[in-house]
Every structure is written in structure tokens, then in C-alpha cells.
Amino acid sequence: MSSDFQQVQDVLGNYQSAVYEKDVERFVSSYASDVHIYDCWENWECKGISNWREMVEGWFNGLKEEAINLKVAFEDVAVEENSNLAFVHCAVSFAAYNPSGEKLRQMINRFTFGLKKENGSWTITHEHSSLPISMETGKGIFNSK
Q1: Number of separate domains in the chain
Q2: CA 10, CA 33: separation in Å to the nearest integer?
Q3: Rounded to two decimals, what is the model's pTM?
Q4: What phi, psi does 2 have (nearest 5°)?
């Protein structure tokens, strides 16, 4: 799937709606073929769109199995860009709802995106998500804001 993201905010909007709709192809359309991701979950890193697609398929399938609607919200978004490169950092809230609309859980991650413009469209070339770690327990802090 080829998408046209004229503005960096278009990429973030696609992320939100594709997660909510659990649309793998639309979600990965925001990413460069050689994307490099440092994610909070399981693997140290993910290199390349095919590996990322596999991770996303597992994530979305898990949401479908649990009958979860996941709403994504970007907070404290800072964007620096020039004509071909952009840098974004923000807090990303993931709130899970059951089919009747009851909120089940929520977590907030810190995200950094590196984007480049290819053929007039922004694509994510690097993504890094993180959580602060409690020095007392060694566990991630999921709602520190």
C-alpha cells in the first residue's frame, strides 16, 4: 500500500486510525522499507519492514482475540523538520476498551520518531519507544505522567 503523507501530522494520524482499526497494511504504510525500531516489547530491535509487519500482525491479532479497541493519543508532541528530515518526540497513550466502551487499561510510552521525505511523502525510518524504569523494582513505569 502506498500512502501520501504530506505533513508529519498525517503520519501520526495514520498511526492512530490504523491501530484503532487494526489495519496492518495501512499501519506499516507509514514506515520506510529499511525502518529500524527499538520497541519496549520483547525484542531489542526490529530491522526492516517485513520484520516490523510481522510484529504488528501479532500485536493486532492479539487485540482482535481479546476483542480490544485500542485508542492512541499523542501528547506533548514536538516536531522539528526541514525539507527532507523530521524528528518527533512525544508521549503516546494506549487506552484499551472492550466492545461496550468500558476502559480496561491504559499505558503511556515515550516515543521518538525519525522521518524522511521520499517521493514527496513522509515515512518513519526510525522509531524508539521507552518507559522509565523504577530503580526500586526494576520494572517499567507505564503511567508516569
Answers
A1: 1
A2: 18
A3: 0.90
A4: -105, 130
